[in-house]
Amino acid sequence: MTPDALTRTVQDFLSEAAGAVVLEDGAVAFDLGRSKYSISGEYNKCLLHLWSAERNTVRRVLEAEVKNGTLRLAVQRLGQARPSRLEICRERDRRSPSAKKAARASYEQKLRRALERHFPGFAITRLTSGIDLEKSFGPIYARGLLRQGQTAFAVLGVNASEAQSSIDASLTFGILWLEACRQSSAGGFLVEGLRLFIPHGCSGLVRERMANLNRAAAKWRLFELDERQDALVEVDCTDRGNVSTGLVHATNEASALERFAESIARIHAILPNCEVAVLSTAELAFRWRGLEFARARMGAEAVTFRAKQEIVFGVGAEERVLDHRNFPLFLQLLTAVRDTRHPYGPRQHPLFRLHPERWLESLVVADVSVIDERLDPRLLYSQVPAFSAADRAMLDVLATTRDGRLAVVELKADEDIHLPLQGLDYWSRVHWHHGRQEFPHFGYFAERELSAEKPLLYLVAPAFHVHPQTDVLLRYLSPEIEWEFVGIDEHWREGVKVVFRKRPDWGTRRGIGLLDRAAG
């Protein structure tokens, strides 16, 4: 293949592989969800540049082949003559179906032995990893029931070879399994609660979420199962003060905007009214209806190393430094973004479909009071980092009511079964930092006195893109959380309009009812 053909092959594959991983010598070298890349076909060579906070790699691409969702590259390291192999995989879990099935079957037996040993008075029934699409269960989780007389507990476990995202999501499916067991046993015996089994050392995020469930609705217990040592340890979820999270300082936006005034003016001259988002004192992003297409940042001159501003552009993980040679390509990108990413644009175009939640977020940030008139549109923050030991969370929108009460707004543009517990996770972090009065200390809401009340939680999604199991999950949230589910019109790109609201009704049996009302 010619260098131009190689460049097109790599570009086409990566443009449709936003969450891909790059493997070199069999090990993951880059996660494109958190890394950047650029591709150059100049000087009769195809060069692939990959970089992240941890490493920086340049490889010359000699051959390329796409097979079974994997881009296989023959590459040459700079300064070395012998080619090596690089693989870019769309799927993070590269195990074959038979390997996954064997690992899950083996885990079922290990879980069964652990249950028999630690709960000797209970009989184990219905332990399975079978698929039940009607109830949203796939083969990842082993599900069963522990029963002793008229008392029973739902059981769900996940093995250590599954992705961390599947482990983090286990509580969502544990709640759904608990509800399914209660429905199937109605009138026969009482399913008191859930016993959830997580791999050793992987329970951090699940523990934080379980701590904020309704303890009057079910008995919640969390265990770590070490499959190698066949050891089972219970994790304490009752200490709500032990949330593992860290807040980053708010950036002085006025000073950053002043520093990058020249770059802002340059972009606005081409695409007026594009959004400018301050990322840090040394970097800001340019977006069009939520889609980031360029950044301005502080770089360094090649010879003198003096600080200078530079603009980089690209969609997704691809990134190029803007110069006179690629300026026509930059204009082409901006024209495509402007002409396709609007409410009546071509719906099948990749630029229209990309990052719908960011598009929705841009509309909500423009006027958050469309979600609830109590919310103050004059002061809010989007994409607020709140890191924990388990993940790097980004809160969609952090706002306040007009009387100073904090509010977490979590947005989904498509059907997502994890919306309730993801919102719960973010709420718990905001609540933890607020209780320690850290938001003013870190530069947030400096001009406002915050109320001592617990934060509000808003969960927002298009009315016809709400997962069918959402109501079940909402019924099990703690009564301490004042939440509201906001259903918006399907044509939200034309303007966000609320069509219904759902709030908890804690007066019902077990305190897990829902109260619906139409907007208006």
Would you write up a description of this structure?
The protein contains 13 helices and 26 strands. With 520 residues, the chain is α+β, with helices and mostly antiparallel strands. It has 4 domains: 3-89, Distorted Sandwich (Protein Yojf, Chain: A), CATH 2.70.180; 97-235, 3-Layer(aba) Sandwich (Trna Endonuclease, Chain: A, domain 1); 253-353, no CATH class; 356-518, 3-Layer(aba) Sandwich (Trna Endonuclease, Chain: A, domain 1). The protein has an 8-stranded mixed beta sheet, with helices on both faces. A 7-stranded antiparallel beta sheet has the order 2-1-7-6-5-4-3, covered by helices on one side. The protein is globular and about 75 Å long. The model is unreliable at 508-512 (pLDDT under 50).
Can you tag this structure with a few keywords?
13 helices, Trna Endonuclease, Chain: A, domain 1, Protein Yojf, Chain: A, 4 domains, 520 residues, alpha+beta
